[in-house]
Amino acid sequence: MSAPRSIPIDPILLTAAQVARSLSLSERYVRALMARGDLKVKRIGGAVRVHRDELARFAADDDTDAGEVGR
């Protein structure tokens, strides 16, 4: 009998680092997008996460003006 195989599971809620990697952005920039509300977040205790559907919405949004962060 063989050992059970682990099945990779895509997380539903993503960290800022995971979002940054997905969008090829810096984590600092992603945190700024989260802080100003451009990326809606889910807070669970002290953890802040982005739902993968929100990431898809943000990536598909033609009205996103990412150049405004930090101004």
Task: Furnish the topology, listing elements before pairings.
Elements: E1 13-14, H1 16-23, H2 27-35, E2 42-44, E3 47-51, H3 52-60
Q: How would you explain this protein's 3D organization?
A:
This protein has 71 residues and is of the alpha+beta class. It has a domain at 13-61. It is 37% helix and 14% strand. The protein contains 3 helices and 3 strands; from the N terminus they run βααββα. Strands 1-3-2 form a 3-stranded antiparallel β-sheet. A hairpin with a 2-residue loop joins strand 2 and strand 3. Helix 1 (16-23) packs across helix 2 (27-35). The longest helix is centred in the middle third of the chain and has 9 residues, at 27-35. The mean pLDDT is 87.
Summarize this structure as a short list of keywords or feature phrases:
single chain; 71 residues; alpha+beta; three-stranded antiparallel sheet; 3 helices; elongated
Terminal Cα separation, in Å?
A: 60 Å
Q: Hey, roughly how much beta strand do the residues contain?
A: 5-15%
Low-confidence stretches: none
**Helix-strand string:** EHHEEH
Total count of helical runs of at least 4 residues:
3
Question: Averaging pLDDT over every residue, what do you get?
Answer: 87
Brief overview:
By secondary structure, the chain is α+β, with helices and mostly antiparallel strands. The chain contains three helices and three strands, in the order βααββα.
